[in-house]
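ok so I'm stuck.
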Amino acid sequence: MPTRRGSVKLFRLLGVDVYLHWAWFLAFFYFTSRPHAYSNYGWSALEILSLFLIVLTHEFGHALACRSVGGDANLIVLWPLGGVAYVNPPQRPGAQLWSIAAGPLVNVALFPILFGLYYWGKHHGWHETFPDAYLLVRNVAIINTVLFVFNIMPVYPLDGGQILRSLLWFLFGRANSLMAASVIGFIGVAGLVLFALYAGSIWLGIMAAFILMNCWGGLKQAQALAKIAKIPRREGFACPSCKTPPPLGQLWRCGQCGNAFDTFATHASCPHCGAQYNLTQCLDCGTRSAMEAWQKPVS
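replied:
not stuck anymore, here's the structure
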């Protein structure tokens, strides 16, 4: 996954920091310098900037939807293969589904605006009086459609694959749904590689490699979740976020000495070196909370 490394901060909006990876500038130069149908390169630059705005609004859709269900979302990184909104919704299938689906819904909302403007311009003869503007609107409408269709494919970790995973979560649970989505993602990667070879597209090949790495990571995470799900649970405690009791055993590792220990048996302190931890991580949903918040009140 892309990080802020190699990126520059553009601005902060609605509590979300937006970073742009340096490779965007190379992509901008490459696409604006290629032959095009516009009368000058300025229109080509506007087309790339429109792509930038579409991707940005898509990622803000994820971030704001995540916040609406009580999750955390304060970072967006834009890079040449797209954008990533770092969202952490509550570990519930409904919350996950809404946080992911909101991104593609932004593209759906843009359909009537862009195509309506295109057909309005066509009706008023823009292709003759304002050919550059007419071509720009048409191309931006097509770009929005292509991005939506590609992103909605049921291939993990694309939005379509994560939507599929969220739907399966309702039926089969967190670990099994991630396992299924990752396996389906491998099948999708194979198809994407074949298409990239057929089209001779290096761009699609890079995207396929990115998806493959995330499918592998999703598979390993699903296996880890499945193992944790089989471990007996400790009574008297529950994660404040996902409400799941913690597993029994020395499953937490000290950041000071590297030894494993059971943080609930030692009251969030390492028995080997004495390091004290203010926050305890849930091994099911990944959130960190104070030990006091984990304790259930005695009835």
